[in-house]
Amino acid sequence: MGFKSMKRPFYKFPFLISVVILCLPFLVSGQTDTVSVSNETVRDLQRYQEQFEDYESEFGPFDDRLLEPLASMINLQVEQENFAEVAELQSRQLSIMRTNLGFENPELIPLVRSMIEIQQVLGNYEAVSDHLEHIRFLVSSNSGTQSEELLHAIENQAHWLLAGFYLGEERRQSDKMLSARDLYREMYNLAEDIYGEKNPLLYPWYYKRAYNLGLLVQLLNTEDNLSSQILRDLVRLDGPTLLEHGRRGGVISSSPFIGLGRQIAVVDGDAVLGEGYLRQGLGFINDILDIAVEQGDLEAQAMAQIYRGDFNVLMERSSGRRQYNEAQGLLLQAGISQQEIDSFFHLPMPLPVPEFYSRFSDLVAYQQSIIGEVGSMQDGVLHLGTFRAWHENARAVLKPVSSDPLLRIGLPQFQVDLSFNISSRGNVSRVDVLSSIPEGRRVSREGARAIREIKFRPFYDGDRARRIRDVQIRYLFAQQQ
User: Fold this and answer.
1) Which domain holds residue 61?
2) Could you give the CA distance from residue 454 to residue 21 in angstroms, rounded to a whole number?
3) String of b and e for 124-163 (b: at least 16 CB within 10 Å)?
4) Which residues of 252-263 are buried (b: 16+ CB within 10 A; e: fewer)?
5) pLDDT tens across 52-96, in order?
6) How far apart are the first and last CA of the chain?
7) What's the number of CA atoms in the CB half-sphere (13 Å) around residue 465?
């Protein structure tokens, strides 16, 4: 039986919690009202507690009649922002529901999601991971081990691990990134089991794997201690093969006398450390292209060529000219106007793009959404919109955003407006800080350093990449707690 057909006799409660959390700033308007509300709340809590104890005495500790007073106590505690007490009450609520509904009943999922909200407020991020694992179990039990629902449950786990970059301890950042990589590999294999090979429904899942590998390489090439930790962990897990071959013959040097703790990355010139992982990612995009060719889908073929060009730019192989030109030709054949194509390629974009779009209009809409985040722009200036960085240890990496609003964690942001040049190979130079919020050398310096590490899809004029000057972007990065 699917989720939609299940009755939900118990579950109005988590929705009420969400509503109360959203309304917290408006609940108390003055000191006198606060005292009145507080006294009334204490009386109500006492009354529901007595009702709960009476029911428990008469019907036993797991009777479903306990749920009504329990839910009322939870809502009152949320109003008072007593979230630790809410967490305890929710645990009791879960025990009662599991006893009455069974351990695998999908009716448990809304409660577990509500528990995730409370644990986020409390800062118990490991508990959130446990609850996401619980949801995965429930989804697997009800939708099966080969279902789209399970794919999304696993993706939520991966996104939460990535969110751990700015929520948890820095020394565990590499572990979380590599654990997320394992989950994306699992999603890739599961998607093939669900859809079979050569199915266009595989596009997003193939690209998620490619994009995750792109993030990994970006982290390897950042100028901070995190890159060294990820390097050590990758050599330990994968060996040096995927790291040792840069375009100009980069290698990994490790001494048999001092062990894995002293790897030194040796790359010539501007070679990319970890190019082998980008080649793997490019392979998944090639798989998308193969499916699109088999389907006779010219537009999807064009889109795959754009993403192939992006990964070639990331590998410092070229300006992506061959792939981008092929994409333009295919788009014309698919009925896209030359004006629309030119407008798109006249706007450089930070790479890699976080999602695969098989329709050109969807990629254009994504591009415009980024630009539209900046309210007012100076006439005659090419503005690229916003870049929201992931973490201070990943300042040139776009912040991953979960498709599930429950897992979108926001922190206060620093803001730096920048002007710079982009070369025909997508590299940044001549950076000027236009303004920053707050003002200060540290904020300005972080923004200027970060933009130099970001790769862009180059500006294309017809079939040739061109250097472009004085483009602008708004760079945002989190204020660490």
Assistant:
1) 1-143
2) 38
3) beebbbebbebbbebbbebbeeebebbbbbbbbbbbbbbb
4) bebeeeeeeeeb
5) 999 999 999 999 999 999 999 999 999 999 999 999 999 999 999
6) 44
7) 20
Task: Indicate which CATH number applies to the domain containing 70.
Answer: 1.25.40.10
| Beta-carbon contacts of residue 334 (< 8 Å; ≥ 6 apart) | 298, 299, 302, 360
Distances in whole angstroms, Cα of residue 95 to Cα of each of 49, 57, 63, 111: 17, 17, 10, 11
Would you say how long the chain is, in residues?
A: 481
pLDDT of residue 24 exceeding 50, the answer is no
CA 231 and chain centroid, separation: 22
Determine the average pLDDT of the residues in 311-321. 90
Instruction: Please state whether the predicted TM-score (pTM) of the whole model is above 0.70.
Output: yes
Domain-embedded: residue 468: no
123: tokens are 């800062």
DSSP structure class, residue 249: -
Q: Is residue 166 part of a domain?
A: no
Residue 91 lies in a domain: yes
Which phi and psi angles does 315 have, rounded to 5°?
-85, 0
Residue 435 burial (CB count, 10 A) = 11
Residue 110: asked if its preceding bond is cis (omega within 30°), the reply is no
**281: amino acid identity, one letter:** G
3-class DSSP assignment, residue 412: coil
The pLDDT tens digits for 249-280 are: 444 444 443 344 444 444 445 578 999 999 99
Give burial (CB, 10 Å; 0-12/13-18/19+) of 292: buried
- Picking from 304, 239, 311, the residue whose alpha carbon sits closest to that of residue 272 is 311
For residues 205-219, one letter each, b for 16 or more C-beta atoms within 10 angstroms of the residue's C-beta and e for the rest, the string is: bbbbbbbbbbbbbbb
CA–CA dist 17, 19 (Å, integer): 5
Nearest of 161, 140, 298, 266 to residue 216 by alpha carbon: 161
d(CA 217, CA 267): 14
CB 76 within 8 A of CB 44: yes
Distance CA 125, CA 142 (A): 26
Mean per-residue pLDDT for 214-242?
88
Report the alpha-carbon distance of residue 472 to residue 420 in Å, rounded. 7
User: 82 lies in a domain?
Assistant: yes
Cα 363-316-357 angle, rounded to 5 deg: 15
Q: Please give the tally of structural domains in the chain.
A: 1
85-106: b (≥16 Cβ within 10 Å) or e: bbbebbebbbebbbebbeeeeb
Which residues, listed in sequence order, are joined to residue 394 by a DSSP beta bridge?
Answer: 391
Strands 394-398 and 383-391: antiparallel
DSSP 227-241: HHHHHHHHHHHH-SH
Residues 6+ apart with CB under 8 A from 51: 69
